[in-house]
TrEMBL record:
This is Sucrose synthase. It comes from the Eukaryota. Residues 134-424 form the Sucrose synthase first GT-B domain. It is an enzyme of class 2 (transferase). The keyword Glycosyltransferase applies. Residues 24-111 form the Sucrose synthase EPBD domain. Pfam families: Glycos_transf_1 (PF00534), GT-B_Sucrose_synth (PF00862), SUS_EPBD (PF24862). GO terms for biological process: sucrose metabolic process. The lineage of its organism: Eukaryota, Viridiplantae, Streptophyta, Embryophyta, Tracheophyta. InterPro entries: Glyco_trans_1, Sucrose_synth_GT-B1, Sucrose_synthase_pln/cyn, SUS_EPBD. Sucrose-cleaving enzyme that provides UDP-glucose and fructose for various metabolic pathways. Residues 435-585 form the Glycosyl transferase family domain.
């Protein structure tokens, strides 16, 4: 069998040494860069060369070829300090009014004299005294990232009517929210840099001619809530004749198409952006592979986001790969994951446990450090979780949808009648079954898919067994279908049958409402707030939860939250302060969890302020650690820092790239030949016309700074 040793290409790569530092790669890299550059002036030459290379569509940023460190040290003190003069020296005129141009400085240091002086002093300080915080701060102010490409090929990627379709769920929501946050942060940074460029973000996905009533057959679609971001859809083509696949393809079966897809994507992106992107972000195994191919070809900084590594979801999937391969093609997927995570300049994880696990469970990435697929490959050194490429940047909830129940003026009151119908109509309908006899009781609420891991039936059984909890609160569940024959998933169908049996066994009618899966995000946001109005709580009882976006949504709506201690929620919640941990595997069949809930609600009856105290602490926890604003700031900082890190490590980076290319060409291409090509009638794709151009209400900009993408969608 093939033996893979990616670690052999990292003899000189510095690694973290403390497990507590895992996931804090940017800080480590900033510290290492600072130590490399500080001291003698000639040590800073790589940074001089890097600053000289910064440009956007040919416009030079930060410094010109006449600059030297002597000039920087000499003239930092010459930047006007008086606020009066600083206010006069803004925008493009600042560099001429303050004689910067003749010194060799260009635009990009700041939009005011005060900010430019501050940026330059940050540079001076990191060169004289090693300080990773100052180094990261300096790189965050450099004009390095303007154009971003985000890969997400599988499923039905769209903005409406797609959630619930095959392979289409949380990843779509994550990326759309991510794009909005990144664009807002890019616009802010570019403005503060004193530049007049417009950022571009393109989400790359598959064009599906048989779009099932969605816009997934539309080539270009502007992203709502943004000015400079769009979805670019490119079809999958058959390897043998280039004809277009018409129908959806499972995420496990996409690998024969990714190479040709990425080649076509690259050409279209270069045309739309009129140049290379500055950062490419992959999502899931197929998107990370596409990002790897494109980033390698263009020489661009690459990030990967796993969302879920399938190797850890299916027990012994490496050992049993032959048995599982006809259905899941893990031989392709695990190789794609290994190549992408080793090629990436940085990896974005949502939690520490995703990388390194806990005392009871190995991390998703940790499980890829060494493993064997008998007869296929033996990975002796896959990925090192102490590698500084790992960074934790947790996503947030859409603040326009999930906001506190106390903000009455913002609430979506148009949904109130529909939500009251969902919760309190005593009759069974196609949308809900069961009823709440005492509608004044608080409600404990959960919302998730009906599968074994999400453990919704487990919560139902816990509730059914605990008479004290039942006397205090009602149970509201949102998820799945009511008729098992409606589900195409065998596991979900089994859970539906189990749910019906539990309702009968514990006679839950009158204390439980089961609502079918809801896909309207705005209405779901208001549903959280309605539960908060009842002084209820949210429960996330999963056996394991990689991150826990519903936990973020609930806490950001002001709901006290009880969540599993297995996975991401254990990091989101400070137990007993901003919410509560529950152990889904604890003794007594959930007795520990229900005792914790019952104790909370009894205390709230005796001391009503206790509910508000936990609610407020949850809101503060999210605001401080789990917002898209924080996420975007961290991600763009990574893009800036790791772009320079590539420059410092280009020889070692090149050696590993060659190894990955060899593995791809000689091994992976043979593996994808075993993936069956679906049989269907094919024809050339006929995407519908792109959305009409927006009216351009902004000030006129030069032709150079306006790409074809911007001429289509407006500046």
């Amino acid at each position: 069998a093939l033996e893979l040793d990616f670690g052999a290409f990292e003899p000189d790569t510095p690694h973290l040494t403390l497990s507590s530092s895992i996931g804090n790669g940017t800080n480590f890299v900033s510290k290492f860069i600072t130590s490399k550059l500080s001291g003698e002036p000639e040590k800073a030459q790589p940074l001089v060369d890097y600053l000289l290379s910064l440009n956007h569509h040919g416009d030079v940023n930060t410094v010109s070829s006449t600059i030297s460190w002597t000039i920087i040290y000499t003239h930092i003190a010459s930047i006007p300090k008086e606020k009066r003069k600083a206010k006069q020296c803004v925008g493009y005129g600042f560099f001429f009014a303050c004689s910067f141009k003749e010194w060799g400085f260009e635009k990009g240091w700041g939009d005011t004299a005060e900010r430019a002086r501050d940026t330059m002093r940050s540079l001076s300080e990191v060169l004289q005294a090693p300080d990773p915080t100052n180094m990261e701060r300096f790189f965050s102010r450099l004009p390095t990232v303007f154009n971003v490409v985000i890969f997400s090929p599988h499923g039905y990627f769209g903005q409406a009517d797609v959630l619930g379709l095959p392979d289409t769920g949380g990843q779509v929501v994550y990326i759309l929210d991510q794009v909005k946050a990144l664009e807002q942060e890019l616009l802010l940074r570019i403005s503060q840099q004193g530049l007049n460029f417009k950022p571009q973000i393109i989400v790359v996905t598959r064009l599906i001619p048989d779009a099932r009533g969605t816009k997934c057959n539309q080539e270009l679609e502007s992203i709502e809530g943004t000015k400079h971001s769009s979805i670019l859809r490119v079809p999958f083509r058959r390897v043998e004749d280039g004809s277009v696949l018409q129908k959806w393809v499972s995420r496990f079966d996409v690998y024969p198409y990714i190479e040709k897809f990425t080649r076509e994507v690259t050409a279209k992106v270069l045309e739309l952006m009129e140049g290379k992107p500055d950062l490419i972000i992959g999502n899931y195994s197929d998107g990370n592979l596409g990002a790897t191919l494109m980033a390698t070809r263009l020489g661009v900084t690459q990030a990967t986001i796993a969302h879920a590594l399938e190797k850890t979801k299916y027990e012994d999937s490496d050992i049993k790969w032959k048995e599982l391969d006809p259905k899941y093609h893990f031989s392709c997927q695990f190789m794609a994951d290994m190549m992408a995570m080793n090629a990436a300049d940085f990896i974005i994880a949502s939690t520490y446990q995703e990388i390194a696990g806990s005392k009871d469970r190995a991390g998703q990435y940790e499980s890829h450090s060494a493993f064997t697929m008998p007869g296929l490959a033996r990975v002796v050194s896959g990925i090192n979780i102490f590698d500084p490429k790992f960074n934790i940047a947790s996503p947030g909830a859409d603040q326009s949808i999930y906001f506190p129940y106390t903000e009455k003026q913002r609430r979506f009151t148009q949904f109130t009648p529909a939500i009251e119908e969902l919760l309190f109509n005593p009759n069974d309908t196609r949308d809900h079954i069961g009823f709440l006899a005492d509608t004044k009781k608080p409600m404990i609420f959960t919302m998730a898919r009906l599968d074994t891991v999400k453990n919704i039936t487990g919560l139902t059984e816990w509730y059914g067994r605990d008479k004290r909890l039942r006397s205090l609160v009602n149970l509201v569940i949102v998820g799945g279908f009511f008729d098992p024959s409606e589900s195409k998933d065998r596991e979900e169908a089994s859970e539906i049958k189990k749910m019906h049996a539990l309702i009968e066994t514990y006679d839950l009618r009158g204390q439980m409402r089961w609502i079918c899966a809801q896909t309207d995000r705005k209405r779901n946001g208001e549903l959280y707030r309605c539960i908060a109005d009842s002084k209820g709580a949210f429960v996330q009882p999963a056996l394991y939860e990689a991150f826990g976006l519903t936990v973020i949504e609930a806490m950001n709506s002001g709901l006290p939250t009880f969540a599993t201690n297995q996975g991401g929620p254990a990091e989101i919640i400070v137990d007993g302060v901003s919410g509560f941990h529950i152990d889904p595997n604890g003794g007594g069949g959930g007795e520990d969890a229900t005792r914790k809930m019952a104790d909370f609600f009894e205390k709230c009856e005796l001391e009503p302020a206790h509910w508000r105290r936990i609610s407020d602490a949850g809101l503060a926890r999210i605001e401080g650690c789990y917002t898209w604003r924080i996420y975007a700031d961290k991600t763009l900082n990574m893009g800036s820092v790791y772009t320079f890190w590539r420059v410092l490590n280009k020889r070692q980076k090149l050696a590993k790239q060659r190894y990955i290319q060899l593995l791809y060409n000689l091994h992976f291409r043979n593996l994808v030949k075993n993936v069956a090509i679906p049989s269907e009638q094919v024809e050339q794709a006929k995407p519908v016309a792109a959305a009409p151009p927006r009216a351009n209400s902004s000030t006129k900009i030069t032709a150079r700074s306006q790409s074809r993408f911007q001429r289509i969608f407006g500046a």
